[in-house]
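Supplementary notes (optional reading)

For those who missed the lab, this is the record we used. Protein: Chromosome 14 open reading frame 28. Length: 315 residues.
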Amino acid sequence: MPLVSYITKTLFEEIRASINNNEEQDRSFWRPVLPWGGVFTIRAGRKAVSCIPLCVEIQLKNTCTIDGFLMILYVILRDNRGFHRELAVFLGKQFIERFLYLMDSCDYTTVKMLWIWNRMSKRQYRSEIHQTALEIDLFGNEHQNFTENLENLMSTMQQSLCTNWSCPTRFQNITKTTINISPPHELPHRDPIQSAVDEFFSPKLLLCTEKGCDGLREFSHRVFCHGPPPFVILNMQQWRSEDLSYVPYHLVLCQYLLEGATLFNKEEHHYSAAFQIDGCWMHYDGLRSDNLILLHRPPELLLLSSLVYVRASQK
């Protein structure tokens, strides 16, 4: 049954309006968006004598491992309505509709519970019972908690063939569900990130790693299993700040444009996010009281955890 919404203006429209009506002295959004943590209450029935409803609390901790990506996912969906049907194939139509409705209703804790219950497995978070409350701790890695739970959205396939006819695994079909790129061994003169993406997708000839095989293994061009997805997330965890002097706004990969990024503070083990709306950059940090701020200029993306690119054909 479709959700009936009485929301006159979406959260995205409010954020966009705040950008257009921004005053220099106040660059923060007027209310918190996706605050860190959260408390979710479940009615568990009634006591037999007093008929008082029993409530069970679910307390969320360390939600920054999903918060930034949820914020960027919301912006992508609201800014690219043509993506709804495509993403519904992987995440489910009901999930997409519910997610957008809850975000626009500012029901942020339920948004997080929707992701935890629908997309995450129990082994990806810790849960403990404290008196009448259940505590769910999402401390960990955002790529494990979010990126790896996007089903086969970004799945790629690459075939390889060994030149040695006696190789026990002469033909291989290699599938990956995420895009984890490594810095080039020698930084090229041109954009290192684009070079790393090219290396991930390009054909190559390498020594076969099968035990006892001395052949060469030829790798084909890597392709998306389900066609170019609406957006791609590049896992940048292996990159150092000194390797990130330049971040490309345009990715020569089926024509993708930079939409946002997630940032990682190693000292605090805390994730935040930055994203664009109408060419203006905003920074989101769920721990701040004013957690959504319009930036004067594009952020310095030196503490990257990921880069998020949106397929340009829909922009």
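If you only remember one thing from this example: Residues 156-225 form one domain.
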